[in-house]
Amino acid sequence: MDNSHQIDNMVWDVDDREIINIGGSLSKLTFENQLEKAFKGEGADFPKEIAYTAGMDHWNKIADSSYQTTDELEIIERTASDIVSAMPSGTTIIDMGAANSAKYEAYVRAFLEQGKTCTYAALDLLGVSLLDQLDRAKEKFPEVTCVGLWGTFEDGDDFFPQIPGSRLFLSLGSIFLNGPDSVCADRCNAFVKNLRPDDRLIIGQDGPRGADSAMSHASYQTEAYDAFFTRYLRGIQEHAGISADPKKAWTVTSKMDHSMHYFEVIAQEPLKCTKFGNFVVEDGTAYKMFPSWKRGERECHEIAEAHGLDIVTLGKAANSGMRQYIIKKHEDRVEV
């Protein structure tokens, strides 16, 4: 992996299959500080980033079989051609949080079918995952230049101005608006700055439905989720210096609080964090892990519009609350 690029002097001059370090090498320090605050109850969430380095293979299996994934793919297949028809040849597709997702493929196919060129840029925090994703992309689309952006979404915000021409940003899988209101506001404000007149941002967002609550809880009671959480908890224990069997040290329960879903994780024994000043997590201490918000169509529109973005609903899944939206700057009306 080429880590020679520096954030302050980057230019969009990359080779096919190149991985650009836009901040990924610095992420470990950030999430370890966040993890200590989470254990101590100092207002921080447990960092999802550790899931990318501990248990990513398990998470990919979960995502591949999720109703959110299949429902969103159905919307993408229906709408990708129309989206691409409004984009010029030479557009860069920026797949934010790419992991092993195949959701971008419909957009690449649409560019090629319409006789247009495009570049695929996968953004992810895990460098190994990026390499694998680019290999898969090149196997499917050998004629398309594929680039990896190694870093966080915030690193991407700093780097995106370096990418010339029109950009089609993909934030799929209920990522962009699934955080608390303050996080949604931050993401919207960032994209008010990121988006150029010819750019488009496609987001997926699951919305609340009565049936979805039962569906969600059931989807978490699987061997795949058990394996993922065991590996994730082992990962945070390693970062904190906790010596314990994660399957015995914690219980994990799926919970809903109105439109917020989270996992309640409860310590089953005293756990000493030797890397965090020997702080002890007492038996019975409960944490909320991976909180995420389901937001309906009206709320998604209100949030985007309140922060200077135009938003249009692209489609809704027939069997769940999953929707897709297209977003651009307010000064230019969205046309699909």
Automatic annotation (TrEMBL):
GO terms for molecular function: methyltransferase activity. GO terms for biological process: methylation. It comes from the Eukaryota. The keyword RNA-binding does not apply. The keyword Methyltransferase applies. Transmembrane segments: none annotated. Residues 37-327 form the Histidine-specific methyltransferase SAM-dependent domain. Keywords: Methyltransferase, S-adenosyl-L-methionine, Transferase. InterPro entries: EgtD_Methyltrsf_superfamily, MeTrfase_dom, SAM-dependent_MTases_sf. PANTHER family: ERGOTHIONEINE BIOSYNTHESIS PROTEIN 1 (PTHR43397:SF1). This is 4-dimethylallyltryptophan N-methyltransferase-like protein.
